[in-house]
Design goal:
The chain has 285 residues and is an alpha+beta fold. Helices cover 44% and strands 12% of the residues. It folds into 2 domains: 7-91, lambda repressor-like DNA-binding domains (434 Repressor (Amino-terminal Domain)); 108-171 and 222-280, Beta-Lactamase (2-Layer Sandwich). It has a 5-stranded antiparallel beta sheet, with helices on both faces. Helix 4 packs antiparallel against helix 5. The relative contact order is 0.11. Mean pLDDT is 86; it is low at 281-285.
Length: 285
Amino acid sequence: MTTEMDRTQLADFLRRSRERLRPQDVGLPEGPRRRTPGLRREEVALLSGMSADYYMRLEQARSPQPSVQVLSALARTLRLSDDERDHLYLLSGHRPPAGRPAGAEIRPALRHLLDQLSDAPAQVLSDLGDLLGQNATAEALFGCVCGVEGDGRNLIWSWFTNPLMRASYPPEEWQHYSRSHVADLRAATVRRGGDAASTGLVQRLLASSKEFAELWERHEVGVRRSAVLRVRHPQLGPVSLLSELLLTPSEDQRLLLFTAVPGSPDAAVLDRLREIGARDFAGLH
């Protein structure tokens, strides 16, 4: 994705970033006394693998739009933080690269937040559908699958390979959920650049589920952000909840929050869920 670059702001940011560095910061000798602070333009150009004339035009706000390869080299040379790198890309009219993945471990602060959200079910999911953690209210609603190893903790895998996964959802909505799962996984796979984790999951699903294979062929894409979720609790009966996806700083973990309209019958079900607790859960998945 490219947009219009801001040449003036880009030039100013490059100049000020260059001036904040000392030669020893990038492995260069201090050399003779310098008239201006920071690195010289020629030094930035050399370390970034570009001509001094091209870099000079960048700082003079008269260059064409730099490529993402040029921006990546400049970010390394200027020792930019992730936030500064993203700023550089945006000023240049490019989408910033994907953030650093958090992996399968939930950050302590996010884990603490999950535990504090006692009024509503909440889960932390990977972008591929792995359930990494959930609070007690979510466990009372959905059951505990967090301790299951491998694909067993993946909600998309379970949806297409475990019939019990669908037992608590209205049959007339199964196709909707199936398409939503596949479209979201398609988006995540491309976002990850087709890494081993995403491609491996897709290949296993293709080999295990004809339904998944047929939907995958449609090439539908859609990131799940908010939706109405209807489930049937084994003790409390049907409940309709609003699900809202809250993105974390890393792109591979998401906080999913389920709420109900205050004062509604569904809100009363959530109140009962907190009373019942996970110990009385009869097993939805």
